[in-house]
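Re: the pair you flagged

First of the two:
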Amino acid sequence: MFRPTYLIPGLLLLVLGLTAALKVSQQTWKDKVSIQSRASRAKSEGKTSITLRGPIAEYPGMGMSLDTALQKHSAVVAEVIETNTYIGDADVINTAYKFRIFEAITQNNAEVCDGCAPVRDISAKLHPASSNEFLIELSGGTLTVDGVKVHMLNTGGLEFEPGKKYLLFISFTPGGMARLAAGPVGVFRVRDDDILESVGSSDYPIPNEIAARHSMKLTRFRQSKGS
């Protein structure tokens, strides 16, 4: 019986060729969208600055109630004391923030978050965190690459300013790292007049309930321990 065994090497060569072509295509795409290549193209076009949209981040806890946030996570008033902006993946600018805690309104052990992305160890990006400090890494920030100012926007509007105080709902993780428990809806700027300003959309339970119960005032939130 005739068996076309010659087809097997041919098919193998075809598969290897397609695999190699796919790898080249993927590498070409990565090179095209990398921060370096975008800055180089902008420079060749005579531009001195560009603004890029960062990756979409998912925060599973955005829909939780204020009571749940207080029971499962920590609410702290903290200030940014150090930052470091760098290229994380080839096509993403990241910023590492170190916060110093002024006040822990509530403090709980970290809850396991099955739907959350792993927290990367960024301790090498900043000076070590002491017992009253924590580190957070977010996409976004500004870098000068090949003479071009590249600003990447954080899609959640999260961009912390050094010297400013914030009320944050967080979960502490090992190594001095922390995770935003409810993403941008669990972050508030603390104004000098005691008013809390929502960083994220106010159409979520946490900012809505802080407004209804505490009139967006830090003093009232603090006195009631958030409840």
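Second of the two:
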Amino acid sequence: MKLQKITDDPEIAQKRRYDDACAATHGMDIIGERWTLPVMRELMLGPRRFSELRKSLPALSANVLTQRLTGLEDAGIVTRIKLPPPASVQVYGLTPWGQEAGPVFQTLGRWAARSPRHDPTRPFSAVSLMLSLRTMIDPARARGTTMRIAFNLGEEAFFLTLDDGAVAIGRGAVERPDLVMTGTPSGVAAAVYAGVSFDDLARDGLLRIEGDRATAARFATFFPMPVKAPQGPA
């Protein structure tokens, strides 16, 4: 308990900040605290309840999540929202300025995917999967394609639309989908990033496809993994 008080001491926190006028360094002052970026990531596709954030980030304690949300509120990145009846619950959402960090996540994701130490087999959330699809799609491969795909990932529903290589993602349903993918985030990732067959994934209970298999197979080719960066000096 004493350690917690020291950690939360504002003077200690201030000393951890960079004494640097560089705007990028200031950005790290704002979002560089452990677990801050994953919390922001989970809010990129819309507001979430505290319990939903905890479920999506199971390794994050309730205490630390509260601290990160408070810090993001103080920084102007997150705001609390009271949903109208019949929900009448409090949720957390990104402010318009917080949403502007979306391209930062995409650039960081594309860069970090080249890391020789990146392990794509580790667990990740449904939101993380959807953001990765938007990040890693190759517009040249998807050019000329119009497609609507529904994703049922556990208790969460998402959609992805393609229009001549331009991709859009979001929460909820999509009208008249060309494909419906039902399963786990790791199942979808195995299909589009590792080339695991849909039959094998269905047999293992990881992914079920509804719709034209040829369309599904074509969709899975739109996400080539980047070449890993060389290790050691360039």
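The chain has two domains: 2-100, 107-222.

-B.
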